[in-house]
Amino acid sequence: MKVGIFDDARIGVVRHNTVHDVTAILDRVPAMRYGIRQGDALIAALPSLQPVMEEMASRAPGVPLAAVALRAPVGHPGKLLGAPLNYQDHVQEAQADPATFAVAQIRRIHELGFFLKAPSSLAGCAEGITLSHTDRRTDHEVELAVVIGRRCRGVARQQAIDVVAGYSIGLDVTLRGSEERSMRKSIDTYSVLGPYLVTADELRDPSNLDLRLEVNGEVRQQGNTRDLIIDVPGLIEFASAWYTLEPGDVIYSGTPAGVGPLKRGDSLLAWVEHVGSMKLSVQ
Ligand code: MN
C-alpha cells in the first residue's frame, strides 16, 4: 500500500497516481495519552488497519496526485536518524573536497555512527525546501528513507526488515560549515520526506534500488542501494543497538556521490525505484 498525508492533514491511499481519502481511519487510531511514549500512532497501527484502509480506498473517489499538496508521510516522528558517508563514492568526493566537507568529520560510518536531525525539520514535497543562511553553501542529498513500524531495541540484521513500516524518498539537505551535523541538517524543511510511504509488504527488498536526483532537469546524483557501506538491515541493527526505535522513526540511509549546491528557484525531481518520484522547489 502507498499511504500519505495531504492537504490539511488528510490521510490518503495512493493508487495509480490518484489519492483516495481515508481520513476516517483516524477514528480507529488509539488516542494519544499524555506521558506515554508510543511513537507515531498511525504508523504503529498500520499493519492492523491496512485491510480496512484498502477497503475504504476502494469506495472513495480518486483525486489526481498532482491536485493535492503532499505532506511528509509521517506525522509525528520521534527521531530522524541520518547515516553519514554511507556510499563509498560519496566518501571519495568528500575526501577530495576538504573546502566543502569538514575534514574532522570524514571518517568511516562505523566510527561516526548516526547523527540526529530535529523532527521540526521535516517537510513534504509540497512545502519544498526553504534555504537558510544563503551566504553559505547548502547541498542536496537524495537518500532512501526507512520508516520504522515497531518499537524495538537490539534488533539482529536477520530480523531487521520485520520492524520496517515502509520506505520513502528522503532529502537530507545540508548546510556546509563547521557546526555539528545535527545543527546544520536540522534547519526547517531540511529533512524532506515523500511523496508517500510505500509499505514494506509492497517493497520486500531494499537492497537493490536505483535512486536519482535531478536539479533543473540535469541529473546530479545517481546511485543504487546495493552500494551502501552499511545496508538497510545493518543500519537498523546498528541504530537499535544504541536507541529504542519507535514507530515513525525515520532512518535517512545515506547519499551517493554528486551532492551539490542548491539555490533559490531550483526545481528538483527525486526518484527511488519502486518507491516513486517527487518534484519540489527551492525557495
Ligand atoms: Mn545524508
Largest sheet: 12 strands, mixed
Per DSSP, what share of the residues sits in E-state strands of 2 or more residues? 25-35%
Helix and strand element order:
EEEHEEEHHEEEEEEHEEEHEEE
Number of strands: 18
CATH superfamily of the largest domain: Fumarylacetoacetase-like, C-terminal domain
Low-confidence stretches: none
Class of the largest domain, according to the CATH hierarchy? Alpha Beta
Level-2 CATH architecture of the largest domain: Alpha-Beta Complex
Number of helical elements: 5
Shape designation: globular
Give the total of domains: 2
From the structure above, extract its key features:
alpha+beta, Fumarylacetoacetate hydrolase, domain 2, four-stranded antiparallel sheet, 16% helix, globular, binds manganese (II) ion
Task: Please summarize what this structure is.
With 283 residues, this protein is an alpha+beta fold.
Describe the structure.
By secondary structure, the chain is an alpha+beta fold. Strand 17 and strand 18 form a beta hairpin. The chain contains 5 helices and 18 strands. The strands form 3 sheets. Strands 1, 2, 3, 4, 5, 6, 7, 8, 10, 11, 13 and 16 form a 12-stranded mixed beta sheet that branches. It folds into 2 domains: 2-68, no CATH class; 80-281, Fumarylacetoacetase-like, C-terminal domain (Fumarylacetoacetate hydrolase, domain 2), CATH 3.90.850. 16% of the residues lie in helices and 30% in strands. The structure holds manganese (II) ion. Manganese (II) ion is lined by residues 82, 141, 143, 172, 252, 254-255.
